[in-house]
Structure formats: C-alpha cells, structure tokens
Amino acid sequence: MVRTLKKVKMPPSSIDFLPPRTERTISISQYRPKDTQQTEGTISLPNSRELTLDIIGLSGFDFDFGALDDEDNEVSQAYKGLMVDGTLYPSKFDVVLKSFWKYIPSDILHLVRFLPMKSYMRFRRYTLFMRKFAPEVFRKSESRDDGKDVASVLQRANSAEDPAKRLHPNELYDQISTILLAGHDTTSYTLTWLFWELAKNKSWQAKVREEVMAARNNAAARGDDDLSAADLDRIPILNAVLKESMRVHPIVWYLARIAENDDVIPLAFPVTTKTGKTISAIPIRKGQGIQVSISAYNRMPEIWGEDAHEFNPDRFLGSRGAKQTSVGVFSNLLNFSGGLRACIGWRFSILEQQALAAMLLEKFEFSIPQDSAVNDVKRKPSLVMVPIVEDQPGLSLFLEAKPIQ
Length: 405
Prior knowledge:
oxidoreductase; alpha+beta; CATH 1.10.630.10; single chain; disordered N terminus
C-alpha cells in the first residue's frame, strides 16, 4: 500500500499539485485572528488551526471545510482537543500496554480502539467521523475527470491499477484522515512557534516585514495582486526565520523505524560512555525498533554551532547553515525526514508557511503579552510538539497582536 500511495501522491511539481480553483483560498488574505477582529489585543495562536484546515481542504481536496466561517462545524469539532485528549497525558496502563503492541497480531490489535479509556475513545470518535466524511470528499471528486486535488489523483491512479492491487475504498478513505491529521496541525503549530520567536525577537520581525512589503511592491509593479510561490522563495530573511524556527521547534520531534535487516550504524561523532569507552558505531538487529530524535539532531552543536540552542536565523543566511552533513529534504533539517520515507507534502507545507507568515506579518505586529501568567510557555511532546501554558485550558500560546495601519 505504501508503494501505491507514494506513486499516486508524489506530484512532479508541488505547485502543479494545487487545484485550479483558488478564489476561496485567495480569500484567506482577508483573514484576521479572531480575537483581533475589532481592536488590538491578546490572541491565542492555535486558533490558526481553522485557517490551515481550510487551506489543506481547498488546496489538497478542492473541498471547502468552512472552518474559518464556523469553528463549531463538524470538521473543526472532529479535530478539537484531539492532541490533548488523545496523546498528551497517557496513563501508566496505556504506556505499558503500548509497549506490548508489537507482540499482538494485527487482526487483534485493532480492537484496542474499543477500550473504555479517554485517549482511545477520542480517536475512535475521530475515525468514525472521518469514515462518514471522507466518502463525501471522494464523491465530489468523481465529477472532476482532470482534477489535481489529492482525492481525484488517488481515485484515478487506483482505478488504473491492476484490480488485484487496488486499495479498498476504506483504505482510500483512511488516506483523507491521515493527510488532514498530518497536514494541518503540523503547519499550524509550526507557525505558532514561529510567531512566538518573532514576538521575542522584534528586530527579526521588523526585517521580515520590511522584506515582505518590498516583495509585495515589486509584485504590484508588474501587475500582480499577490505574491507567487517564486516570490516567496526569493525572500531570504523570511525563509531564514522559517528554517530557524523549524530547527529549534520541530513539530514532529522523533522518527520511529523498524530495522529490516541486521546492520551497523556508524556515528559521525563518537560517543564516550560513563566508563570511558568510546562508541563509534551502533549494531542493530532485524526487527529492532529505532527512534531517531529530530529535536536532538536539530540542536547538535557539532552540526549547528555552539549557539545551537539559540534562535539565530543568521545561520541560514549566507554560507553558514549546517556543518559536515546533508540530511532530509529541506535545508539539512530532519523535520520532514528523508529518503523513501520523506514527507510527501513537505513542499506544500513550506509554501503554506511562507504565504501565511508573509500575510500575517504584513497585517500585524506581534509581541509578548505583559501578563506574566501567560508567558510561561512550555513545549510538550504530544503526538506533535505543542505549546502549553499552565492553568490555561487546552493548547495555548498567547501573543499581543497590533494591527498595522
């Protein structure tokens, strides 16, 4: 199934992957964080989930979820609280249970979703909703013979496959659920951490805003109403702060893999144990579980310099960057993994981040709130790395947003 989906969903060009109908997508340029509709004030940035949900709906499926218009609609409610309820605070029993999953046959393991526990019940409600909602997305795509959205491409490619190799309709429906879950929360929280860093580093925020406005003027001079993907790629400081924020705050914080063969992994930087022994390679056996820490790699001083734990976009300007290594699909970062298992939507995610960051920085000046009670932001390793403020409900990160006249 992985082979089929990779072949079906990996477009020759991420820009070609965008649907032809873009009026509703473009209308997000009128977006204002909901807490600042009338005046400046404090906003909760995870509210941008509705924005990214609508974008991936339109750009990925040519389907209007309507989350911006109504945050209480069915799709928005299906995702609301999913990260906190589903993965953030597992019970001791759940941790022990999951450690035995690999020993349970798959035809039995799927029954765990019926366990009367909060996390399993929450994900079961989500999957039941998506099993009803995904067919609606596919039915809409059936009328578009040349559609470029994910649902249309999936259906055409699956129909062209050998009947014996075709995916079952339920497997196709599950891909909608996977893409939405993986595609909109990750971008939303990536932007959340970006604006938090720019609110703390006002000089970088001002540099990006000046650069974006200059690019906007250049686009207007040639008769364009908006910035193109090429324009966004040519804004160096904007891209530097995006890369640096992704480096410091990777949303997916580790990769889990299973070794297919016995092997020996050489270490670029040998490790010295407490006993004084130097380890320069790690032997692994077939079937062994491996966790690769994206957070650790992205902050290795040997790779990124002695200031690896600091937010410093200068490292992506000029020739500094990463040292002695080249991994992943984007700027030597592991955020999108690499190789055959690299994130198939990485280019779309970058384009979305560029466009939303440019749009919001043109409209608002962000700063840290004066209220110290909401400034103690902690990074919590849920299914993704999320912001938490003590004594605040759910996932929260608050910033002051002042409209720019």
